[in-house]
Write a structure and sequence with these properties.
The structure holds two protein chains of two kinds. By secondary structure, chain A is α+β, with helices and mostly antiparallel strands. In chain A, strands 1, 2, 3, 4, 5 and 6 form a six-stranded antiparallel beta sheet that branches. In chain A, strands 7-8 form a two-stranded antiparallel sheet. The two termini of chain A are 15 Å apart. In chain B, the strands form two sheets. In chain B, strands 1, 3, 4, 5, 6, 7, 8, 9, 11 and 12 form a ten-stranded mixed beta sheet that branches. The chains are: A alpha+beta, B alpha+beta. Chains A and B meet through helix 2, strand 4, strand 6 and helix 5 of A and helix 6 and strand 7 of B.
Chain lengths: 197, 274
């Protein structure tokens, strides 16, 4: 329960430097099966800060981050989509995506997570970048597998630095030219992570 | 006289199934009638709004263009039909023409959209004529391009949201690897313009190597012009003439016919109990 609460709270954490909004899978029936091969069904849930906790949550997050919401698209009423994944009647995980600002266009990153927040798969639904091929390659996306959302808490999105010994530090940028998009990708995962480790 | 009412009243209960079926039939047909009138009114109003928001009453495109959308999807943005830009001068010569705006639609296959790629489309517009015909478009931020030769883009609200672009950001044209500077983001208009990426037409022609080619011309005709006569005058040009008012009339007729068929089907007399 505690994890779910934290997961929900930090699902909506705004960026310190960039805007991000929620996004849907283009083809949920196909994509859920691909990201969660053992699943038999899913439920789609929509959240927005405005309807769940109002300005109180927004203020709490802004105070905690020391920053305000900004950007044209990052508003308190932005709907976020969370797919709850089932195997029979048993819930086995989540899929969640964030629409992130990249250097040349929007980046949509989805993570498939088990109930403990361990990453089972990651997927770029949309990516506009000169290094898109390298970033979408499984050599890069597989580096996220097995990490837990909590691992991203030690990652600083504004500087791109991680705590010593952090597992996130081991993720290698496949293209130095795509540093901005690489950091935006990590920023997507950071957004989903609980804060108190 | 009283006997007539008494007889009718008693008759209602003489064959209860018939009475119930008749009541259901009348209720159903009334419901369908009211729904169809509502649908008809809403559809017409929406159609009028969409046509008004087009900014022009007539669109001419290259012959064969009704298949343009299908071609676009099947061939990954290639195979569009073009007309020579010079045709605009011929159309302007007609006294019925008040204003025209040439347009060029181009699309690229973006392999990094979705699992197996998708299409990104761009609309090349003339900065001098297009904004004056689309006066309903308002800006959330920025403005229209000032220089017709600058590598700039104006984004509809939904296109900007999808691409997470703000004014002064850079937009990459996939496949061509060309960068465009975002100079304006439109407010939501509730039209197809919300999802459109506008680029100066000369720049788009250059990027896609389609110099002096266009895919459509928006024409604003003078008031009281006979559109069918105007169409006859343009018959010899290698274009298809699409009049929004004609299309509207056709759709309204189809809608009325559909309503009549539905009403006939649910009419109580079809359900007469014998």
């Amino acid at each position: 329960m505690r994890f779910k609460f934290l997961f929900f709270i930090f699902l909506f954490c705004p960026s310190i430097t960039w805007a991000a909004v929620g996004c849907d899978l283009n083809n949920p029936d196909r994509d859920v099966k691909r990201l969660f091969p053992g699943s038999t069904g899913y439920k789609t849930r929509y959240f927005s800060m405005a309807e769940k906790a109002g300005d109180g949550l927004l203020e709490k997050i802004q105070e905690r981050l020391g920053d305000k919401f900004h950007g044209l698209y990052e508003t308190v009423d932005v709907p976020y989509t969370l797919y709850e994944i089932f195997k029979g009647s048993e819930k086995i995980g989540y899929i969640h995506g964030v629409n992130q600002k990249g250097k040349y266009g929007g980046i949509q990153v989805f993570l498939a997570l088990d109930l403990e927040g361990n990453i089972k798969a990651s997927y770029f639904q949309k990516l506009t970048s000169r290094s898109a091929k390298l970033l979408r390659d499984s050599q890069f996306t597989d580096q996220f597998k097995g990490l837990n959302l909590k691992d991203f808490y030690g990652y600083d999105v504004s500087t791109g630095k991680s705590d010593e010994g952090s597992r996130v530090k081991r993720i290698v940028n496949p293209s130095p030219e795509a540093e901005e998009d690489f950091r935006a990708t990590l920023r997507c995962d950071e957004e989903k992570s609980p804060s108190d480790g | 006289m009283m006997k007539v009412y008494q007889l009718s009243y008693k008759n209602l209960f003489r064959k209860k199934t018939r009475t119930i079926l008749t009541v259901i039939g009348i209720a159903l047909s009334s419901w369908v009638l009211a729904s169809l009138f509502g649908f008809n009114k809403g559809y017409q109003s929406s159609l009028n709004k969409d046509i008004d928001n087009m900014g022009f009453q007539v669109l001419v495109t290259a012959k064969g263009c009704p298949y343009e959308a299908a071609t676009l999807m099947l061939k990954g943005g290639t195979g569009l039909r073009y007309v020579d830009e010079g045709i605009t001068k011929e159309i302007l010569r007609h006294k019925e023409t008040e204003k025209i705006t040439p347009m060029l639609m181009q699309a690229v296959f973006d392999p990094n959209k979705g699992e197996s790629g998708g299409i990104t489309a761009y609309l090349g517009v003339d900065p001098e004529t297009f904004p004056s015909m689309k006066t309903h478009l308002k800006f959330k931020a920025g403005k229209w391009f000032e220089n017709p030769l600058s590598y700039e883009a104006v984004l509809g609200y939904e296109a900007a949201e999808l691409e997470q672009r703000e004014v002064d950001d850079v937009l990459l044209v996939p496949e061509k690897n060309v960068e465009l500077k975002v100079v304006g983001i439109l407010k939501r208009s509730g039209t197809q313009d919300d999802g459109t990426i506008f680029v100066p037409i000369k720049v788009l022609q250059k990027i896609f190597n389609q110099n002096e080619k266009i895919t459509g011309i928006g024409i604003k005709v003078k008031k009281e012009v006979d559109l069918s006569k105007f169409e006859d005058e343009l018959y010899d040009l290698p274009v298809i003439f699409l009049s929004w008012s004609g299309l509207k009339r056709l759709l309204c007729v189809l809608l009325v016919e559909l309503s009549a068929i539905c009403l006939h089907w649910v009419s109580p007399k079809q359900w007469t109990y014998s």
